[in-house]
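Discussion board: Methods & Data

I've been asked by a reviewer to show the raw model output for two of the constructs in my manuscript, not just the figures. I'm not sure how much to include, so I'm pasting the format here to get opinions. Each protein appears as its amino acid sequence followed by a line of discrete structure tokens. Is this the kind of thing reviewers expect to see in a supplement, or should I convert it first? Here is construct A:
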Amino acid sequence: MLIELANYLTMFDSSFGVVRYITLRTILAVLTALAISFLVGPAMIRRLSQYKIGQTVRDDGPQSHLSKAGTPTMGGALILVAVAVATLLWSDLGNRYVWIVLTTTLAFGAVGLWDDYRKLVLRDARGLPARWKYLWQSLFGLAAAWALYTTAQVPAETRLFLPFFKEFAWDMGPTFILLAYLVIVGSSNAVNLTDGLDGLAILPTVLVAGALGIFAYVSGHAGIAEYLLIPHLPGVGELAIFAGTLVGAGLGFLWFNAYPAQVFMGDVGALALGAALGVLAVATRQEVTLFIMGGVFVMETVSVVLQVASFKLTGKRIFRMAPLHHHFELKGWPEPRVIVRFWIITVILVLVGLASLKIR
């Protein structure tokens, strides 16, 4: 939105042309989303507390979690507001990638919002039934995959690339839609499973989003992409701004979500953020890199799958409790230790992912 205004003002003063640079607009998007979070956050937390929209806690979980009952949740709405406003302000609204990514994020957020509303406002313990939740996730995931496939302008947009291998480029054809769907929906649910401790999910999301923003920028820049031997994807550089809004909004939310949390994001935030990471990875052709950088999300998801499979097949549990972070809590790790160590793991994995830009 503001880039159009800046383009107009350059007729009177050429210095406004600096707003055209993606790097500057990304920085401004981060700061805008952060400012919105700081300004809106306290009022939103008060309103959620006023309406008694608080977290429910399982009796069979770690006993330290019982004190969290009643903590305001659905705070993920704050993240979505900050992301949407900052994206609309600083992005080129004529860019198709921006609309596909933003719409997908908000759509998954709507699914999470309805689930949270049923559980916390209507007091329906089931929330949105799993089959309906998965149905809507699937529809929105397929819609995003179809949009990216049908609007592709260069062959690289539908090819599969592997990090650290410069020669590998598989032209997937319609198989692209299936892969994109699995990445978007899988990432959405993986972040949702990880969101079980104060700040555990949000900082890894911020770190991975920041890295994907770097991938978006270099892939969208013809000169840098050629130098790094990565696919050039015209227009995808604009997604660096969207990734920046995730970083700013995520850090702003962490201000209130850090241990001990004043607010939880709920499904409205977790499902949306996971989908945002997934669609960013697909758009930048970094699905495998997302698997590496989001290793914490992968571990949490695999722990649930293994736990359920083991119990159904043998009647025995592999972990004391799933997802994995609860296993370590029940082993006696204090909650902050689990959180920080998972953060450290994510930092390492994100650096490995970024190294693939040069090591090929």
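Construct B, same format:
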Amino acid sequence: MALEPDLDWRDEALGARIRVALWLRGEVGEGGTFSKRQLREAIKGKEQVDRRMRDLRPAGWVIKSYRDKPSLKPDELYLETVGLPVWDKEYRAAGLRQISAKTRRDVYERDGHVCRRCGIAAGEEYPGEQGSHARLTLGHVVSHKAGSAASPENLITECARCNESVRHLTGVQMDKEKVWDRIRELRNSDRKALFAWMVHKGRVATPAEKVWAMYWQLPAAQRDELRGKLHDLLQS
């Protein structure tokens, strides 16, 4: 995966995504930390350079923030894995997908603003991991690498951690016999709940769970205020 000798992240003729990838590989390296400020200072004059960095993730680049790796400072990012060489013509479009703001919004609304895999809400703290909060993203039901479309039917709301885990399960495919075996092992009450989710094409959230997901989208100060108001309401 050697760089072509004529490619340099300082070359302003290159696209922002390619320049970001070259900068990360050459200046940061796997296992290195950096900040968004350093990235913006390096790739000057390019709009939405942060988004171009995020666009590398579907191409196998693993870039973690303090939400994913509690040891990081809030302004630090960690380059865990260098993915596909998007500076190569062969991989120039690797991982790229166009999801409109409306589609993204609709999928989040459909899924109740919670991860459909583990159930955690946006901004909620992971159990037993103080300071590590969930960040929601969109994943594909059928792998994007397999040529699937970015349509609502093939998109699912995931937390960044589940999304990362699923993308690394290459070669591991579930089949209906394995799923049926698990269904048979469930208690009858759980089978009924599962059937209801199947009919609704999603986990049926209770009214309290829906408000819980909305609550975690608020800033911390507003969450504290609401918690106090609810406490007073319960005491009245």
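Answer (T.O., handling editor elsewhere):
This is acceptable in a supplement if you add a one-line summary per construct. For B, something like: The first strand starts at residue 32 and ends at 35.
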